[in-house]
Amino acid sequence: MSRKIRMLAMAFLWSSWLTAGELLFSGFASLRGAQYLDTEAGNPGIPGFLEDNDSHMSFKDASLFALQASYDFGKGLKATVQFLTEGKSDFEVDARWVYLSYDYKNHVFKVGRMANPIFYQSEYQNVGFIHNYAQLPQAVYFPVEFSMVEGVSVDSNFIIGEWDLRTKFLYGHFDGELYFTATGANHPSGLENLVSVNLELSNRWFKIYGGSFLSRTDFAAFDQEVVFPLVEEAINASNATQAEIAAFLEALASDNKDGNYSFFGVGWECSKWVFDAEYVTYGVKDSAIPWGDCYYGALGHRVGPLVFTLRFETFDRDREDKQFLDAVPDPILFGAGAAIHDAIGARRFDQSTFSVRWDFHESAAFKFDYFDGHDKRLTVGDYNGIIFGIDVMF
Amino acid sequence: MSKSSMFVISALLWGASLQAGTAIIVHPSNSNSLDAFQISQIFLTKMKTFPDGSEALPVFLPVDHPVFDAFLRQVINKNLAQFKAYFGKLIFTGRGTPPKVVDSDDAMLELIAINPNLIGMVDEAKVTDKVKVVAIF
Q1: A299-341, pLDDT tens digit by residue?
Q2: Is it the case that residue B9 has pLDDT exceeding 50?
Q3: Considering only residues 60 to 119 of chain B, which have any Cβ-Cβ distance to chain A shorter than 8 Å?
Q4: Which residue from A49, A40, A27 is spatially nearest to A136, judged by alpha carbons?
């Protein structure tokens, strides 16, 4: 445990001796095995999942454990910290949430380090017990570090007739490392002035939801480490002027531009049937990063303590739109820019998953997923595999 | 009374006790009337006040209590896993905490009888005049 986390934990426990409040512990864990059964070209297909695939069963990559402590000071004021340890980061403990919250009527105000609601289930995507799959659809819920941000938020709830309207507003920033699906690696990055708005309207059986966040990117490292080195040769080979080269690099750059993530979805749960679908679109405006268009749809059937689900998901990139190169007249530079755009957007895949959930205990569920997908890259192609294990919540 | 008629009466009484409903109870001074939807919203902590604006604090029986089981199916329309998943979302997003739980019907009756902001559930057959029934399921 790092010194910073130890100090946070001590400060948190110490506060409980000074006031007569209530300390509440809760947590969740997922202990899972995962394996690619077959990979056509020997490389894994799912972003950030079993990246070091060697065809053996891994009991580490998809496993995690989290402990959350909330100190209730009374009159709506709470302090919360959540520690998360994941197998894929060698079970290093991370203080994921650290915030103060204040409940006032139907509003919850928060300040500190908290979840960034990028997509519908992003705030609780690590809590396996909540959903019906061994793994959420990775076409949408691939790992992103800015799922936690520092800032302020307000969650509100309104009853309108027989409908429930939930809203969330968040302002914050992220400073850390980002996983880029294009390179399969982390790069130092930031998101400034992040403004997020989420809405959900639901009744007993049906829900419709959507949300979006805008921010100013700090992706200078990605530009310097990945994008610009790839065009050095083309710049040297072209007859472009210094002004044209500068315009070309600005067209490619994803730093200091507008980043936008949006989602929209519906869910329906009636009798024994469960349906869920979510579409997400995201990208950095006027940059070499192609816009992402991803979605999943799932239909499940509940039989006693079992839920059987069939799911289809797509991870796609808009590689056709080359408008970001409109101000690049030089054909060599244009060609290099287009090639980078295509290369960054090369990862595209479709996947089908059959899932079984078995609620064998009031606080635990056994899950099994069989997935079968196709990645359009020649270095990946067809792949399939299994994920299974137990999700608990306490 | 003959042995056979005593048996019939006992069987009827036993059947009646098995079919006793789930009573939703509040403090006698609570003058609010609540429909099924409002009751479910209060117990899911979505609705935090009674219609008159006073604070509404739901109290549950333990998950293995038969009244709680009936309450989940009839009022909340969720099974236990769905119910726990719902409150899991609230806990792990910081949007709320689950209601308090008391051990038994008797403890529930005692608690409701002393606090006008509480709303709870109890076996209909155990209702006393120290609480007010707002609905029976």
Answers
A1: 999 999 999 999 999 999 998 889 899 988 899 999 999 999 9
A2: no
A3: 63, 77, 79-81, 84-85, 88-89, 91-97
A4: A49
Q: Residue B4 domain-assigned? A: no
Q: Under an 8 A CB cutoff, do B49 and A105 touch?
A: yes
Do the Cβ atoms of A296 and A248 come closer than 8 Å? no
Minimal Cβ distance to A129: which of B48, B85, B96: B85
> Rounded distance, CA A228 to CA A233, Å?
10
In this structure, is residue B80 part of a structural domain? yes
Tokens 């969330």, residue located? A168
φ/ψ of B83, rounded to 5, equals: -65, -45
Interface contact A110-B94, CB threshold 8 A:
yes
With CA atoms as reference, report the closest residue to B99 among B113, B83, B114.
B83
Please provide residue A146's backbone torsions phi and psi, each rounded to the nearest 5 degrees.
-80, 20
A382 token code pair: 């067809």
pTM metric for this prediction: 0.86
Amino acid B12 reads: L
Q: Helix, strand or coil for residue B75?
A: helix
> Is residue B12 assigned to a domain?
no
Domain holding B70: CATH number?
A: 3.40.190.10
Question: Measured at the alpha carbon of residue A77, what is the angle toward residues A76 and A78, in degrees to the nearest 5?
Answer: 115
Cβ contact, residue pair A127, B37, below 8 Å: no
DSSP letters of A77-94?
A: EEEEEEEEEEGGGTT-EE
Please state, in angstroms and rounded to a whole number, the distance separating the CA atoms of residues A130 and A122.
12
What CA–CA distance (Å, rounded) separates B99 from B42? 10
> Residue B32 sits in which domain range?
20-136
Residue B115 belongs to some domain of the structure: yes
Which ipTM did the prediction report?
Answer: 0.85
Sheet strands side by side (includes B57-60):
B100-101, B57-60, B118-123, B22-26, B132-136
Residue closest to B91 by CA, chosen among A164, A62, A24: A24
Please state the domain count of chain B: 1
Residue-wise pLDDT for B88-122, tens only, equals 999 999 998 889 999 999 999 999 999 999 999 99
